[in-house]
Amino acid sequence: MLPDEMRELREMTRVMVDLLDNAGYGEVRTPTLEYERAMAGAELGPSAAYRLIDEHGDALVLRSDMTVPIVRVAVTRYETDDLPLRFSYLARAWRRVKPRSGEAREILQLGAELIGSEPIDAAAELLALCGEVLSSAGLADWQIGLGDARILGELLEASGASDADSRALLEAVRDQDLVTVDALAKELGVPQAATIARTRINGDDLEGFDPVGIGINPDSAAWSDLTTVVGALSPEFRTRVVLDLGLAPKIDYYDGIVFEAYDPAIGRALGGGGSYDALMRAFGSSASGFGFALDTELVHAAVAGEERGEGS
Amino acid sequence: MLPDEMRELREMTRVMVDLLDNAGYGEVRTPTLEYERAMAGAELGPSAAYRLIDEHGDALVLRSDMTVPIVRVAVTRYETDDLPLRFSYLARAWRRVKPRSGEAREILQLGAELIGSEPIDAAAELLALCGEVLSSAGLADWQIGLGDARILGELLEASGASDADSRALLEAVRDQDLVTVDALAKELGVPQAATIARTRINGDDLEGFDPVGIGINPDSAAWSDLTTVVGALSPEFRTRVVLDLGLAPKIDYYDGIVFEAYDPAIGRALGGGGSYDALMRAFGSSASGFGFALDTELVHAAVAGEERGEGS
Q: Which of B3, B32, B92 is nearest residue A26 as measured by Cβ atoms?
């Protein structure tokens, strides 16, 4: 990346980091190379890490994500009465990529983590903060897709489907492979899963929506949490939200509310976030965790795309 | 690294990066993971890189230095009539460390490279720039050790010593192992090497110094270059310079003028620089190269040390 583009990216990330800092999310840094054995519990995290051997023969992993190291720092260095904790980061992460996928091996992530807050409050706070960060970067048209990993998860559990079958269906949902979704949902006896995976509701239209009609239990924790969070958002924010009930978390450790950020100028999610209580438990904490991360280079490309009038 | 310290480090590096940018050194970025085969010529560079294998079975190296990748970009992407080129960077580098050496495996380097300028001009410009960067970071007491890799190099070559013997002597000089230096210098028939390795001259006292007295040819390119560079520095800067004729480059590709930056509050060099014409030639360019890099966390520690009154 050459000087003119670097200067723009530097200015943009400075504004974003300052916004997070002013919102009480202090920037932290963790090593990029971690001992593999210190990442116990991280089987819940991204599995796409590069691995190498150090001068003593110990296995190191090149950080593929910041949430797992931050959770580890939070659990080992802070006391329960320090909660809630608010951290931000601007950090590189590396992940193995599929051949010819066009994905970047290295990403410069900007993110925030809120640990030990009430789950619903945390989701509402971080959704709003993510929106402010995107606006501060210069994006006018950002949108949020909002879902909950538990909706399809609980449906599949209730159906008695095997773990392997459930995983296959969720993967097809994640890849938006609707032919496979339809076939598997029918085979597993949960045809409503295919309907749910297709359902999109504008944030403003949620009040008039009947979950029972598509096979969702309105008293379930997932539905209750989702609607409460939408209700807690500002009216302006709500117009940017689409409830996407087929939004399956791309990162394994998200286990409740999950969201992605988009911009019409870019054909991929700019980033996303969600709750990761099970990851906290894997590190021995009963506190809740919620975070988001944005790919700064995609956000920068979206700003440039909006300036060229793309997607509008 | 936790929020308060990160905030200080962030502010400090912002000021430094902006200073370099305003001086015409535009920030660049290169991948942290490079294909090993693309680093041909880098045998002149640091050999302490971590190596790993990617998803296609290709060998990757984790960047151990920014100079080599920048030289590669400069030689492959720019034309001769673009010269001189000025680049800066704020980037992480990783290197294998000796057990129990207390060295950091990962460093956040700030640096500048000047490619295609006259060698003496380049050295004077980058020495002055390095001083400005250190002042901008908040350091009051920085000092510069200045040497030339050719002084001992040419002496050893003229003596007919073998490559292995020369390397052993230079390594002992680099480690300031003066017992070994004395023994090897005597054995190889260059006792003056031991005198030179001990010689320190204040920048202000250079005029009255007689190089012949310690066995240096005053007409050699190395001595002429060194004295010309010192003459080109401002009087204020000259008071901070010590000619250290035993200053052997810690990085293999420095092959002419070489320097290190110090502060009395910290017991190690904060960074350093030098000329690397042979590295340029290894990548197929006949242009000159000169650069420096500072360890930002050491600079930050030095600022904190000065504030506590250490070393003064």
A: B3
B268 touching chain A per CB within 8 A: no
Rounded distance, CA A71 to CA A254, Å? Answer: 13
Q: Do A50 and B50 touch (CB under 8 A)?
A: no
**Segment 151-170 of chain B within 8 Å of chain A by CB:** none
* Distance from C-alpha of B258 to C-alpha of A52, rounded to nearest angstrom: 33
- Superfamily the domain A142-262 falls into: Bira Bifunctional Protein; Domain 2 (3.30.930.10)
pLDDT band for B100, please (50, 70, 90 cuts).
Answer: low
CA distance readout (Å), B306 to B96, B136, B139, B140: 30, 14, 7, 8
- Report how far apart the first and last C-alpha atoms of chain B are (Å, whole number): 27
**B135: part of which helix (H) or strand (E)?**
helix B119-136
CA distance B106 to B89: 16
Nearest to A29 among B6, B29, B98 (CB): B6
ipTM over 0.85: no
- Residue B228, judged by CB atoms within 10 A of its CB (0-12, 13-18, 19+), counts as middle
Query: What is the per-residue pLDDT across A265-301, written as a single tens digit (0 to 9) for each?
Result: 999 999 999 999 999 998 899 999 999 999 999 999 9
* 3-class SS of residue A291: strand
Q: Does domain B1-138+264-312 have CATH number 2.60.40.10?
A: no
| Sheet-wide strand order for B50-53 | B33-35, B59-62, B50-53
Q: Which is the CATH superfamily of the domain at B142-254?
A: Bira Bifunctional Protein; Domain 2 (3.30.930.10)
Half-sphere exposure of B306 (CA within 13 A, CB side): 16
